[in-house]
Structures are given as C-alpha cells and as structure tokens.
Amino acid sequence: MKKRTGMVPWLFAAMVVLFCGSAAIGAEANAQAPALAAPTLTLDKTEINNGGTIKVSGQAPAGQPVFLEVWAADHTVRANRFDSEVDKDTGKRPYIFYITEEMPAYYKTFVPKELQPKIDAAKKEGKKWSYSALLKDLGADIAYSVPAKARTERYQSTLMASVIGSRGDQLPAMDEKENRKRSMQLVKARFQSIDKVVAAAVDVKPDGSYTADIKIREGLAPGKYKIVAVVDKKAKSEAATFENKIAFPIVYLENAGTSLNIFYPFVLSLCVAIFGVLMGAGGGFIMNPLLLALFPALPHTIVAGTVTPTVLFSQGSGIYNYSKIKFINWKLGCGIGTAMLLGGFIGPKLTEMITLDQFKFAFGWILIILAALMLWQTMPGYLARNKKEQSILKEFKKRAEEAAKGKK
Amino acid sequence: MKIEFWGQEFHVNMVVGCIGGFLIAIMSSMFGFGGGPFMVPLMTVALRLPMYLVVGSSLLAIFFNTSVSTMRHYQFGNFDLYFFLAMFPAAILGGYIAPQIAKRVSPLVVKRIACVGLILLALNLLGVY
C-alpha cells in the first residue's frame, strides 16, 4: 500500500515533464511565426473642443511600422454608392446600389511619416484614386477594421426600378470579405478626398517607440472617438478614447455627419431669400451651390433634401396670396402639376445615385443655362415686350384685387 | 386643352407642357430647387401664354413638384432637422424683408448681378477655380 502511494509523486513528476515538453514544442512552433507584441498607446489628453491636436505616444515592437486607426464611436452616418462601372471580369455593368447606415462619422488612418510620398503619388491620380489600393500600398489594410464591419445592404437597380423611383430588389447579404471590400468603396464615397481618410503623422523611432500628432479638424461629430495602434492584424493595442466637445452655436447635424455654426446657414439663407425674391427666382438655385461651395463637408443629398422643404413655404404663401385674388388657373396649374408630380417622385432617387462630382458638374451647367436665361431677360428686345406684359399683368391684377374686395 | 382666365380663352398644348414640366421637375427635385425660373420661360415661350396667366399657375405647378420631392427626400433620409431649422426661419424672414427693398432697387440691376453671381457659382461647381 505504502509502496503504491509512493509511486504517485513519480507519476506526477512524469506527467509534468511530458506536459512541459509538449508546451515547449508549442512554443517552438510559435517561434517560427513570431507573434508581435501588442503595441501600447497613451494619449496626452482625453478631450478636445471642436477639433484640436492630440499627442499619441507608445511602444511598438522595434522595426515595425505603426498605424493608428481613429474613428468616431458615437455617431454613424449613411454612405451609399451606385456601382455602374464595367466589371473587369465579366465586362458588364453591375448597376448595384450599396448603402450602409453604419459608417463612422469620422474615420481616418494615420500612417508612418515615411509613407508621405506614397500618399502624394495617390493624390496625383486626382478623383480616380482607389481607397483599397492606397491602403494596400501603404500596408495600412491591416489596420482597416471598423468600416469593414458596417452592415451594408445592396440593391440590384434596373432602369425600370429607377423610373418608378425605387432602389430595386434587395440582394442577399454579403459575406465578411465582400462586405469589407465594398465598405472601402463606401469610405471613399463618403469621405471623398484622400486627406480625410489618410495622413502620414506617425513618427516611429528605431527602438519601436512612436509618437504622433493626431489633428482632428473642426466641424466633426461630437462624442467619443477611439484610437487603436496597429502593427499587425493580431497585434493591436487597447482602444484609447477621447472626446470631441462642441457647444452652441455649433450644432451637430445628425444626417449630414458634420457640425457647424448654426448662424452661418441662417445668415446665408436670409441673404439668399432676399436676393431670390428680388430677382424673381426661388432661393434654391443660389442656396444649393453656395452651401456646397462654402461647406464642402455637407453631402449633396442632405443639401438638396433640406433646401427643398425650405422653398416649399414661400411657394405655399405665394399660392395663397394669388388664390385670394383668384389669379391662379387651377386647371392649368394642376395639369402641368401632375406631370411635375411624377418628376418630383423620381428626382430624389437620382440624387442618391450620383456622386458629388457629377452633382456639381450637372448643377454647374444648369446654373449657366439659368444665367443665360437671366441675361436674355435683361436684353432690350425682351424688356420692350416685357414692359407691355407687365402692364397688362398689373392691370389684370388690379382688376382681380378689386373683384376680390368687391365680393367681401 | 382649352382654359379660361379672366374672360379670355387660351389654347394650351398640354403635351409640350407636361413633357417640359416633367423634365424640369426631375431636374429641380434632383438638385433641390423650386424650378420657377425654368417653368416661367417654358410657359411663356413654348406655350405662348401671357405673363399674367403664368405667374400664379406656374407657382401652383411647381408646388406639386416641391411637396412630393420633399416627401421623397425625407423618405430617403436626406433631410436634416437642425439644418432645416437654421434655414427655414431665415427664409421666411427674407420673404418679409425683400418687398421692402424691392421698391428701391431696379429689377434690371438685380438680374444683372444675379447673372454674374450665377456664372461665378457655376464655374466654382465646375471646378474651374
């Protein structure tokens, strides 16, 4: 009995040896593909006021480039893209509409300073730059994770569906890889320029310690932002958090994904409304391009979608005033109005499908046509005819007003 | 189509009117403006209607367009409430102030200024400068 219990420690010892041996083999296997130690990350402050600079420092394994992934954690925006480019493999145009509601309101990758020439080279490509190619070129695709998880829906658009103003048939959800690929295109569609998504700011020392000045520009979403330092797909630091604070009169526009001083659009709208009435055109013509020119951060869909209801009121009051003196032909107005109703149903769908550049291009030409119309209206020939028309107009209006008064 | 307005009868070519109106509506709702400056020339030049008939009726026609496109933009999530609240009161206020100024300036001068302004804006959008 005593002998047998005496065996137990030996057995135990044998097991320990065996276990250690297998563990050692495991360690050897790991050594073949060395796992990089996760970098550390510290911020010098946790709060900024409507933009500012945050100094980031930390320690990463020596000789490795360090990428910083920064994103707004509290606010997401919508990003959409209409894919009508010819597919290289099949030679067909896919006509697929991609949309996500989960794009971070701010997303940017900071790369080592040495990579600046590569960014400059990508900028030379102009508007045709590719986000995914740029990330790959910089080696920053390992740090690309947050938008990749944004749930993206896609719709198969057809000409018929667009005509009736529908997005088309929803296609089955994409797998992780496809979602990641499409999300990169959406990042570009949303943030437009290279400067908004990539910057060379990380200063990596030979011993692996790094510092970076993270510049957060004005007019971004408020709330918490997160930073992660990345040296490898698996070697990521803990997320550090800082907060971007904004105060009245700077207001965050939820759908536009930007914050701006609320008095700017107020003053602008006031001036444009006055000028619009004076020149006899709705303010929308001037308001839209002005907003696009002055606040490049605003998406064109939001600009168009928000200016439209603004002009609705002035039209309504105009109709009311004319109808009081019976100066509207309801048959004519409603007849043409029905045709316009259909057009108004389709238009907003198209806004969504075009890119900002196409929007600007088309609007530019519309404005030139409008300017030509205006010029024509100041020509002597037109004025002479118009004078007659105006006097008839005044005469009829006077009669109408008197008739309206007489009834009362 | 025949219409009657203040004791006079007019012939309106509704086919031209509707096609023109439809195209203008697509364009204006797409880019977020009213469409009046295009509607008035369409009705006076293409349909040969007198100005006094056009002013009110064109407003009614574009009102249809604007209300539907507002609805659709809202449906697509293109509408931003705070942004709207910043612009809307200003637009109304502007509507009250403008007639006071209108008496003192010549519409011809305003139109010429507008012309230059529009060209500048257009060039900006087209990326010329």
Number of distinct beta strands of chain A: 15
Helix content of chain A: 40-55%
Q: What order do the SSEs of chain B take from the amino end to the carboxyl end, as H and E? A: EEHHHHH
CATH superfamily of the largest domain in chain A: Macroglobulin (MG2) domain
Beta-strand content of chain A: 15-25%
Global shape of chain A: elongated
Order of helices and strands of chain A: HEEEEEEEHHEHEHHEEEEEEHHHHHH
Looking at the structure, the CATH topology of the largest domain in chain A is: Immunoglobulin-like
Describe the global form of chain B. Answer: globular
What is the total number of structural domains of chain A?
A: 2
Q: pLDDT under 50 segments of chain B (min length 5)?
A: none
Which class do the helix and strand fractions of chain A yield?
alpha+beta
Please count the helical segments of chain A.
12
Put simply, the count of helices of chain B is 5
Oligomer: heterodimer
Blueprint of the fold:
The complex is a heterodimer of chains A (408) and B (129).
Chain A: H1 2-32, E1 42-43, E2 47-49, E3 52-59, E4 67-72, E5 76-83, E6 96-104, E7 107-112, H2 116-123, H3 131-138, E8 152-156, H4 159-163, E9 169-170, H5 176-191, H6 194-197, E10 198-204, E11 209-216, E12 223-230, E13 240-245, E14 250-253, E15 258-261, H7 263-279, H8 284-294, H9 300-324, H10 330-353, H11 356-377, H12 380-407
Parallel strand pairs in A: 2-13, 7-10
Antiparallel strand pairs in A: 1-3, 3-11, 4-7, 4-12, 5-6, 6-8, 8-9, 10-11, 12-13, 14-15
Helix pairs in contact in A: 7-8, 8-9
Chain B: E1 2-5, E2 8-11, H1 14-31, H2 36-46, H3 51-75, H4 81-102, H5 107-125
Antiparallel strand pairs in B: 1-2
